[in-house]
């Protein structure tokens, strides 16, 4: 019995100790602190050795920069899928098999190739090809290959094909008669000629053969006819050249032989092209949020000088591009390394937005899902008294309870941080291999990029202790100065270079808003003797007392021995240029700055000050919600936001667009915006 009781006591003690440990872990990892505790960033850590010598100017005029992509644009989707297929070329290099579709009616199966084929020499000897032509559709140009209709397993193109160093993505489509479909692209100078049953003989095709001889190589005819029920059809195509009018006129004469002639329509869909590993549809979904965001800008921030919309070579179909206050900027204009393009990584694009030609020195960056809900002024971002106003969100969760924030990338291998969730201690425990970089991050790419950015700053920070915590950036507009952006890029040149090279979002991307705000709040510069005196002179009398010196030095954390040395030095230099006021002995600025002891002290000690003036602010003017397929919750969130819009608002699309509930959620979102901003802005085209 005694042994049993002893075992019971031990078991209870173990349980209590375990419970205490879990409580301690919870208190350590939960986001209790309201603000980030800034640390000192060592400016000498700059990776390329350059730093801007020009002081940041936050005065007007102020421009606005948006980042916008439209995931319903076929060109964008084809670029997206082509780039993703390139990451695993081996999966998509088998021959593409396009065959007749039983549910498509009368048609010719074809292969759609994007982008337009630069050269067809390598395909010219392929006996499976009837002819190749190009199609221009809005701002997209692509090629169409018409194969032999009798051969379904034609070896022509793969899903991903490399020709002369260029990559092409291919998918199946078909050409049919205009009246048989309500979708598709009507093809110029292309017709489907049908032989009626009573004339279904080769005699009826002699005129077509004669036309082909007359037009020569400039035009094409599909000699591989297809049987559709009791009729026979051929596809006739005339290239757009000097003979095109002759082609049209001659083709119409075929009607005299009792043949039916119908305009040809090309039908294809990006949905038929299945590429694994693509980002979720909500990442690029088009909910017209940019349109309503611009309406909020016109209503509440009309003082904005110019608006730039950065896109992947896209333009919203409703945008009034003739408006002198708005410009569409392709990513090619801002990326120094063109090999990084095309990119579908918003963090990569954000890191280059300060390169927009003609952009104001200071600008506001907004995602298209942000909008203003109240009048906005410059003082909502910056004041002369407080500097840049910084809003931090929740504290970043620990990647591991035993891996403090400051252990990531601090130059020491911490085994608790050497795992997937903690980004392998930012490389402190060895090189992060390409295989590791390709692994799916368990906590989401956004969280991974936060840890990656934290590791960057830990590498170059001082006074790093376990009591320092990082916080997430708020989902709100970012007030950016181009000189600071350049300094940030120079400080982490290699990190930004690697981040820019990711074509898709990665946990190894630099989280730009976090990096920018961390840099502003932690970057330091060495104080000169003049700036030290000015800060010591708190009463602005033009002289500094011993008491003012001591207060300044104690605030900077200077050792007692160094404090004594500096005070003794200033007293020795004060002689004829000092005056006594009671017990206080003071020294003038000219005498202080010329004092040899002061100069020695500054060179030995190095007193630092924040490089950029800033103030951490509360977030009562911010409102962020996420819309999901849960209709009830989404409706409640939108109702609350509609009743109390803040200065800065953001609605994030977290819907599953593959489910029908998303259609209802999108309607809710559209109705919310229409109610809040019913009037068209000057940035929209005037439609019916």
Describe this structure in words.
This protein has 688 residues and is α+β, with helices and mostly antiparallel strands. Strands 3, 4, 5, 6, 7, 8, 9, 10, 11 and 12 form a ten-stranded antiparallel β-sheet that branches. Helix 14 packs antiparallel against helix 16. A hairpin with a 3-residue loop joins strand 17 (382-383) and strand 18. Helix content is 29%, strand content 23%. The chain folds into four domains: 28-52 and 396-523, no CATH class; 74-272, no CATH class; 526-610, Recoverin, domain 1 (Orthogonal Bundle); 621-676. It is elongated. Residues 1-10, 25-38, 214-219, 223-230 and 577-583 have low confidence and may be disordered. The protein is built from 18 helices and 29 strands.
What is shown here, in short?
The protein is 29% helix and 23% strand.
* Spans of at least 5 consecutive residues with low confidence: 1-10, 25-38, 214-219, 223-230, 577-583
Which percent bin holds the helix content? 25-40%
Largest sheet: 10 strands, antiparallel
Number of helices: 18
Number of domains: 4
Question: What's the structural blueprint in terms of helices and strands?
Answer:
Elements: H1 2-29, E1 40-41, E2 62-67, H2 74-86, E3 107-114, E4 129-137, E5 140-147, E6 160-163, E7 166-177, E8 185-195, H3 206-215, E9 219-221, E10 226-228, E11 231-238, H4 244-252, E12 259-268, H5 289-300, E13 307-311, E14 326-330, H6 346-350, E15 362-367, E16 370-372, E17 382-383, E18 387-395, H7 434-437, H8 445-459, E19 461-462, E20 471-473, E21 478-481, H9 482-491, H10 493-500, H11 512-522, E22 524-526, H12 529-536, E23 543-545, H13 546-555, H14 560-572, E24 580-581, E25 584-588, H15 589-594, H16 596-605, E26 608-610, E27 614-617, E28 622-627, H17 631-643, E29 648-653, H18 661-676
Parallel strand pairs: 2-13, 2-15, 13-14, 18-27, 28-29
Antiparallel strand pairs: 1-19, 3-5, 3-7, 4-5, 6-7, 7-12, 8-11, 8-12, 9-11, 10-11, 15-21, 16-29, 17-18, 18-20, 22-26, 23-25, 24-25
Helix pairs in contact: 8-11, 14-16, 17-18
């Amino acid at each position: 019995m005694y042994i049993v009781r002893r075992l019971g006591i031990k078991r209870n003690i173990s349980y209590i100790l375990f419970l205490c440990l879990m409580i301690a872990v919870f208190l350590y990892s939960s986001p209790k602190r309201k603000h980030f505790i800034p640390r000192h960033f060592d400016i000498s850590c700059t990776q390329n050795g350059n730093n801007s010598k020009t002081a940041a100017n936050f005065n007007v005029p102020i421009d606005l920069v948006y980042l916008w992509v439209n995931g319903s644009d076929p060109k964008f989707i084809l670029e997206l899928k082509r780039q993703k297929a390139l990451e695993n070329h081996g999966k998509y290099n088998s021959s593409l098999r396009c065959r007749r579709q039983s549910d498509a009616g009368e048609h010719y199966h074809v292969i759609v190739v994007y982008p337009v084929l630069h050269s067809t020499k390598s395909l010219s000897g392929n006996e499976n090809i009837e002819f190749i032509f190009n199609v221009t559709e809005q701002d997209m140009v692509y090629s169409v290959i018409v194969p032999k209709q009798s051969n379904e397993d034609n070896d022509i193109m793969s899903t991903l094909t490399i020709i002369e160093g260029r990559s092409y993505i291919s998918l199946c489509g078909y050409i049919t008669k205009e009246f048989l479909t309500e979708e598709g692209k009507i093809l110029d100078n292309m017709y489907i000629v049908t032989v009626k049953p009573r004339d279904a003989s080769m005699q009826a095709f002699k005129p077509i053969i004669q036309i082909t001889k007359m037009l020569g190589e400039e035009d094409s005819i599909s000699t591989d006819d297809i049987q559709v029920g009791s009729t026979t059809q051929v596809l006739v195509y005339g290239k757009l050249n000097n003979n095109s009018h002759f082609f049209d006129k001659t083709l119409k004469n075929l009607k005299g032989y009792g043949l039916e002639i119908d305009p040809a329509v090309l039908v294809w869909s990006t949905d038929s092209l299945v590429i694994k590993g693509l980002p979720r549809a909500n990442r690029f979904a088009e909910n017209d949020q940019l349109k309503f965001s611009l309406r909020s800008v016109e209503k509440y921030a009309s003082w904005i000088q110019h608006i730039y919309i950065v896109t992947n070579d896209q333009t919203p179909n409703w945008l009034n591009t003739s408006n002198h206050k708005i410009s569409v900027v392709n990513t090619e204009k801002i990326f120094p390394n063109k090999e990084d393009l095309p990119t579908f990584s918003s963090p990569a694009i954000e890191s280059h937005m300060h390169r927009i030609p003609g952009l104001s020195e200071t600008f506001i960056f907004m995602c298209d899902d942000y909008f203003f809900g109240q009048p906005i002024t410059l003082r909502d971002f910056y004041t002369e008294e407080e500097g840049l106003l910084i809003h931090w969100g929740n504290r970043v969760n620990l990647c591991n309870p035993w891996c403090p924030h400051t252990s990531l990338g601090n130059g020491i291998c911490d085994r608790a941080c050497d795992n997937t969730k903690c980004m392998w201690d930012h490389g402190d425990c060895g090189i992060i291999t390409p295989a590791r970089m390709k692994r799916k991050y368990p906590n989401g790419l956004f969280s991974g990029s936060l840890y990656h950015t934290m590791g960057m700053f830990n590498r170059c920070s001082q006074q790093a202790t376990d009591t320092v915590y990082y916080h997430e950036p708020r989902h709100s507009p970012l007030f950016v100065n181009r000189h600071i952006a350049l300094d940030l890029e120079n400080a982490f040149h290699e990190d930004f270079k690697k981040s820019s090279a990711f074509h898709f979002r990665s946990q190894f991307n630099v989280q730009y808003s976090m990096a920018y705000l961390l840099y502003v709040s932690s970057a330091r510069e060495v104080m000169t003797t003049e700036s030290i005196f000015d800060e010591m002179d708190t009463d602005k009398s033009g002289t500094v007392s011993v008491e003012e010196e001591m207060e300044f030095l104690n605030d900077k954390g200077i050792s007692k021995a160094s404090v004594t040395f500096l005070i003794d030095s200033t007293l020795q230099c004060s002689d004829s240029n000092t005056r006594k006021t009671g017990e206080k002995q003071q020294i003038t600025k000219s005498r202080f700055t010329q004092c040899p002891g002061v100069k020695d002290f500054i060179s030995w000690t190095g007193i630092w000050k924040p490089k950029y003036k800033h103030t951490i602010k509360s977030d009562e003017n911010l409102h962020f919600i996420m819309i999901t397929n849960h209709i009830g919750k989404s409706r409640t969130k939108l109702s609350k936001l509609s009743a109390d819009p803040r200065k800065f608002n953001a609605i994030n699309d977290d819907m599953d667009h593959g489910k029908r509930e998303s259609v209802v959620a999108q309607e809710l979102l559209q109705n919310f915006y229409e109610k809040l901003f019913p009037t068209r802005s000057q940035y929209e085209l005037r439609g019916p």
